[in-house]
Amino acid sequence: MGNIKNFKQHFQIRLHAFQELINQITLLLENGGFDAIIKQQSIENKWFTEMNCRFALKALSKMLEKCSCATFYQKYQSCFQKEREVQSIAVISAGNIPCVAFHDFFSVLVSGNRFLGKLSSQDSLLLPFLSEILIKIEPRFEEKIVFVEKLNQFDKIIATGSNNSARYFEYYFKDFPLLLRKNRNSIAILNGDESDEDLRNLSVDVFQYFGLGCRSVSKIFVPKNYNFSRLIEIFKEESKSLLLHNSYMNNYDYNRTIFTLNCMPVYDGTSFLLLQNTALASPVSVIYYEEYEKISEISEKIQTLKNEIQCVVSNDYAIENNIGFGKTQHPSLFDYPDKEDILLFCIS
User: DSSP string covering 187-217, please?
Assistant: First the structure.
């Protein structure tokens, strides 16, 4: 019984260290402690603007709020009833949004295992910086955190990539327990009764991180004969900052030219394009939309595409497992990518 108590205590100690990390993140953001590393990251990757990096760090702090960590402890404490060997868990991360591997980082370390991280060259600075802060808070993490260029000597692997790279991962790591994530996109379902505030919040779901995250809304379902004028005006106002980003606007200009040459009817919002299309994944600067007659049609479609959808944004009670407007980029500790429980994978 004493041993079980110790295992639970160690789990709680690790959680408390991450809670202290929140305080440090908040303090450093306020006093300029992140300024240099954020500036360097934005130079190395033009899509990781300073604003987006700060937004990501604040979202991590919100994820690790005290009440969330307490609920997390209550949910998983029964999993730490017996001693387990420490495993090396390799994490191959994507580089689409800042600090995208943090949830994996958190889950591997809180489970008591060793994090072996192979970061994307597009997102290589922020997580190591956070790990240094975490080690100062809890020095026992030092031997549990390793960042590498080439993976070797690991027990399990968590890999995130495109549908194409997933086939490579499945073959290459076929002899290891593998948690594999593929392409996913998020959708929004409108019924026409949304307020201006709803649409402003939806613009965050669409435009934050330039729409590059799996939690970014790339497709909107609207009632047949939906009037886009109010949505377009609000989106135009909320997306003004995109006009200043050269790489984003190059995508906008390219897509607008292609659509014009192909005589494809679009709504032009000056920094974004709305195009009717049945696909889920839209190019940068493009939002796909699709009309529906009955909300039941969408429920059936969601069920069919559930392995391709990350978030469903709506305020319609008929849509199951929906989340509110403006909340896609603020995942909780329990919003696991692809809905795969990372902590259970780490300790199984």
Answer: EEE--S---HHHHHHHHHHHHGGGG-STTSE
Domains and CATH numbers, the chain: 2-183 (3.40.605.10), 185-313 (3.40.309.10)
* Distance between CA atoms of residues 176 and 143, nearest Å: 23
Q: What percent of the chain has pLDDT over 70?
A: 98
Q: Is 112 left (phi over 0), alpha (psi -120 to 50) or beta?
A: left
The arrangement of strands across the sheet holding 309-313 comes to: 266-268, 273-276, 286-292, 217-223, 185-189, 309-313
Give one DSSP letter per residue of 19-88, joined into a string. Answer: HHHHHHHHHHHHHTTTHHHHHHHHHH-TTS-HHHHHHHHHHHHHHT-HHHHHHHHHHHGGG-SS-----E
Pairing outcome for strands 286-292 and 114-118:
unpaired
- Provide the 3-class DSSP secondary structure of residue 289: strand
Reported confidence tier of residue 52, pLDDT bands at 50, 70, 90: very high
Q: Which residues contact 289 (CB under 8 A, 6 or more apart)?
A: 219, 220, 221, 222, 274, 275, 276, 277
The residue whose two tokens read 């729409």 is 211
CB-count burial class (<10 Å; 0-12, 13-18, 19+) for 344? middle
Backbone angles phi, psi at 330, to 5 degrees: -125, 65
Report yes or no on whether pTM surpasses 0.85: yes
Q: How far apart are CA 64 and CA 12, in angstroms?
A: 13
In angstroms, the CA 15 to CA 1 distance is 21
Per the CB < 8 A criterion, the answer to whether 305 and 292 are in contact is no
Q: What backbone phi and psi angles, to 5 degrees, belong to 52?
A: -70, -35
Q: Is the pLDDT of residue 168 over 60?
A: yes
